[in-house]
Amino acid sequence: MFKQLFNRLSYISALIIKEFQIIWSDPRNRIMILLPPLLQLTIFAFTATFEVKNISMVIYDKDNTTISRSLSDKFQNTPTVHTVYHVDNESDFKNLIDTQKVYLGLTIPPDFSRTLYAQKPATLQFILDGRKSNAAQIVMGYSTQIVNAFQYELSDISIPEPQITIDIRHWFNPNLNYQWFIIISLTGAIATIMMLAITALAVAQEKEQGTFDQIIVAPLSSTEILIGKTIPALLIALLDVSLMIGAGLLFFDLPLSGSFVSLYLSIIVFLISIAGIGLFISTLCQTQQQAILGVFAFFAPTFLLSGFVAPIENMPLFLQKLSIINPLTYFFNLMKGIFLKDITGPMIWENIIPLLIISIITLTFAGWFFNKKLD
């Protein structure tokens, strides 16, 4: 019995070694495996952000008094505002917005100071470029904060104190560092692409190169063949994820509130669930081109339904239900929870168990289709 088990393991080991030799024999494969994940992580960490910096704006000050100029200076001295244009007519004001040279336009009415001295509510007009809707909302939030801060700095006029004071605290990410969110999310997205690509090409490549028959005649069962195809892809994807996590910890000060054990348990289970999907795609495809198209056909909706682009709660109900079978949704929950929240064991298992179920289902279907192909 032990001798037979040893023989089966030796056959699988030989297949695993063969897979590694195929992948690493081509220098281009080595470059594609190691370089793009780190390059994408670095580029997206600095470019893909929900913050709006270097804001350009135009101010049309019809009041032109000490108070109105103080408000203009308040905007000009704000770190997020890069350029402030001052105009003295409606035409120039409109032109700067129409040509997209500014995000924001501020008009100060001619009675602004007089109204404040009379202790009456004064009006300001903000005009934002609706073509950049997300940026416009963020810039409006900044503008509201600047105006609120300005009114409390006025020492020479009496402004009634507000009856309600709002004290805002951001849990788990106090400084709203969007790089943390981007890095955590991109790690899952890039790992998904890598795992899908390697496993989806595993069988399709053999078919296209004419070596699939050699695997069939080998003394291996279909399950052992799939295991031999999965393990190299799993180890390579795990290496890529480790490199990205290391880069996040070293260069972007990404905090790790939870444990490495919980982190890597979550990563391994997630990668296995993606491996099942990749192998399922691979068994259906006859060529590498079909496999690549299958990867992108699966990844695009998976990524959009994961909660990275928009909160799942904001989606229509039927799309929210689809996210239940999306492995990336659970992985994002685990990554954010382990890195930023130090979530407890029950919360970790709430997300790992669905990944295990997805893994079992996808690997079972992949094995079933693979057996049909062999028959």
How would you describe what is shown here?
- The chain has 375 residues and is an alpha/beta fold.
- It folds into two domains: 9-48 and 176-374, no CATH class; 55-153, 3-Layer(aba) Sandwich (abc type-2 transporter like fold).
- Helix content is 67%, strand content 6%.
- It contains 14 helices and four strands.
- The chain has helices at 2-25, 27-47, 66-76, 90-98, 112-117, 133-153, 178-209, 212-217, 222-251, 260-284, 288-304, 317-322, 327-341, 345-374; strands at residues 55-61, 81-87, 104-108, 125-128.
- Strands 2-1-3-4 form a four-stranded mixed β-sheet, sandwiched between helices.
- The longest helix is centred in the middle third of the chain and has 32 residues, at 178-209.
- The two termini are 28 Å apart.
Give a quick precis of the structure.
With 375 residues, the chain is an alpha/beta fold. The protein has helices spanning 2-25, 27-47, 66-76, 90-98, 112-117, 133-153, 178-209, 212-217, 222-251, 260-284, 288-304, 317-322, 327-341, 345-374; strands at 55-61, 81-87, 104-108, 125-128.
End-to-end distance, in Å? 28 Å
Given the helix and strand composition, which structural class is it? Answer: alpha/beta
- Rg measurement, Å: 28 Å
Order of helices and strands: HHEHEHEHEHHHHHHHHH
> How would a crystallographer describe the biggest sheet?
4 strands, mixed
Strand order of the largest sheet: 2-1-3-4
Tally of domains: 2
Percentage of β-strand residues: 5-15%
User: Spans of 5+ residues with little confidence (pLDDT < 50)?
Assistant: 161-166
Let me know the average pLDDT: 81
Contiguous helical run count: 14
Please count the beta strands (DSSP E, at least 2 residues each): 4
Shape: elongated
Binned, the helix content reads: 55-70%
